[in-house]
Amino acid sequence: MAKTYYDADADLDLIRKKKVAIIGYGSQGHAHALNLKDSGVEVCIGLPATSKSIARARQAGLPVKTNAEATQWADVIMMLVPDQTAAKIYAESVAPHLSKGKTLMFAHGFNIRFNTIAPPKDVDVSMVAPKAPGHRVREVFTEGGGTPGLLAVEQDASGNAFALALSYAKGIGCTRAGVLQTTFKEETETDLFGEQAVLCGGTSALVKAAFETLVNAGYQPEVAYYECLHELKLIVDLMYRGGLAYMRYSVSETAEYGDYIAGPRIVTDQTRAAMKGLLTDIQDGTFAKNWINENATGRKWFEETRLQEAKHPIETVGEPLRASMQFLDPVTVKDNVVHRVAKTSPAAKTKEPTTVGA
Predict the structure, then answer these.
(1) 338: burial class by Cβ within 10 Å (0-12, 13-18, 19+)?
(2) Counting C-beta atoms within 10 Å of the first and last residue's C-beta, which end of the chain has fewer, N or C?
(3) Active site residue: 30, 32, 97, 108, which one?
């Protein structure tokens, strides 16, 4: 059984005695920094001098330094930048100032697992990975709760790496919900697999395929959107709260019967083999190599695919439907920038029949 640690197991004073640099001020960066600050930890943000996030960080009451200055200043350096840029930032701004006795931390094991970052042997290397998006890490913390997290130690030069990482986890609220001990290898491989097989890749493909099946059979796209995307949250929320059993308890027996007979027809032996293939590509480094190469060669395929996916009919059908449901706090994404949707009133429109590819 995996070991889980809670508030009583962690000494918050350990991290309070350290100066912590958060490299990056995105989703996770802002949450870690503000939660640590509220926990009485001395924090600064490391950002490039031209970063648009500098103003936001300072407005939140956080001091800002360049990445190099922050690394020089800090005892603990937490890398909270995208996987594909972390190695370059580390090599240029962190490594030259990572002196003996310091701690290098991560919230995801990608760069350590696939050797794009190789820290010196005289520093501690650890990970605290909240199992939630950054905005939830912050929101739940301010409400008095916490999100669960994972903790791992890759390198223990000081003999105190685990205790300090656990203290950090308490500082951001994770020990309120429970911190599970793992390894960089396990966290990285399971995280990538979950994203690809279920959370992002699998779910996106399933939703689109079901939507296309209904629309191509002649059903209204709006009805297909509600059935295949909108209601998904309602079902997932039930699972989130009480597992599959609570979801099946909460739906009709007709839906439960359909669950039992249809699931095995959708997730077949061929699907399981494909999942095993995804996991193998992650374990042997194929996925990491391809993603690193995609970024190194201009990201043409990635950007073209992003644009193509944004034009899928489920997106064009869903946007006006969400705009009429203000309780969702609906947003749109244009040119990879998020915009809140202004309140609109439904208007009758004449539409051409929608067809989508299989």
Answers:
(1) exposed
(2) N
(3) 108
